[in-house]
Amino acid sequence: MDKLIIKGGKKLKGEVTVSGSKNAALPIFVATILAPGINQISNVPFLRDINTTIKVLESLGASVEGNGHVVKIDSDGINSHEATYDLVKTMRASVLVLGPLLARFGKARVSLPGGCAIGARPINLHLKGLQALGAEIVLEHGYVEAKCKRLKGARINFDVSTVGGTEHLMMAAATAKGETVLENAAREPEIVDLAQYLNRMGAKIEGAGTDTIRIQGVSELSAANYEVMPDRIEAGTFMIAAAMTGGDIRINDMKLEHLDALAFKMQDAGVEITSRDGVVRVKAPKRLKSVNIKTRPYPGFPTDMQAQFMAMMCVADGASVISENIFENRFMHVSELLRFGADITVEGNTATVKGVRKLSGAPSMATDLRASASLILAGLAAEGTSEVTRIYHLDRGYESIEKKLAGLGADIVRVKE
Ligand code: EPZ
Q1: Contact 236, 305 (CB under 8 A)
Q2: Whose C-alpha lies nearest to ligand 1, atom 28?
Q3: Would the pTM of this model clear 0.90, i.e. be above it?
């Protein structure tokens, strides 16, 4: 297993380009199931989760060329309607193949995703939506068995805003008979990216990015090429890295409007953020001010930036209150941040962070994807040397983050443990 060794205290300078979005690429890869043919997907990040999705598609019979940047997916050969536990357990998002397999073959058998470190993450709303479209769903032996000759459009109202649920039902409804309306739909930019790809395949989807999405079912879709949007969470992570190290960086190819909630909170903390022609400049203040945040569905403050923002508040002046309202167990980075000398207390879904002058370098262990990022950020700002182990969590969602940070002047290396 690899680990990262970081010598803290370097101010980040220069420019960086983020990779394509993991959370846009994954559902886009799954959508290729809906239409036989060759789909060329570009700006795909080299990530473990991308490799896992490729394995799932190949297990279904697709043939895939490449595993990053440009990936060619030939979905013509897909002939199985079953996604097994050993694949789904490594990445929950693979459960999204259920709807497209059902739409294409009239039946599907997909393992229920296992638990996850950050929360139970049920898929009840996915299944309820598929049933509303006419699917017969049976849960047995840890699998979802679904059947339906042809899905039929319906009005679906989500109890809670669910990114995966919205994506799942958008894909299943694309070739259903008649109109489907998704109400209280999630509004994340990754959903807009998926809708744009589906429409390029011939789907008729309107309203993606708002809380009401209308889908006119079409009889068939055809393979299409697509360029994945930039990864806004990777970009947000670099913004915070600059802010915590007294840095001044520019991030290329970034739509700041995808991170408005984060940018406004960072500006409240005293960080200078400007954007021109797709380049975002982030300039740190002498001392960060403490700021309170509450995670919310988009366009609220993104839960995927909560751990990173907490790391920043560890060195801000004053106390900040961070409440995590999306997942029930997304504070596992707290106990690791305490090892760096942070002052954090947790009460239920609320963490209170009292800023300290300086963090001190320490050995630490990653527990989930975004928690690993927050430990790296702490190491960059800390005095002395830090280590982050179990960075296979990190490799799920960040392409060569240590190289990109080193390119900005950080002293960070990956070594074999
Ligand atoms: C997506 O997960 C992202 N993953 C997550 O990013 C992100 O944190 C999350 O959306 C929220 O923004 C991908 O896109 C691959 P949800 P998803 O369904 O779709 C509850 C990362 O770090 N819920 O929006 O699984 C659920 O328990 C990952 O890149 C139900 O109750 O999230 C949660 O509390 C982590 N029933 C809330 O909704 C359901 O049927 C939001 O979950 C579905 C969800």
Answers
A1: yes
A2: 304
A3: yes
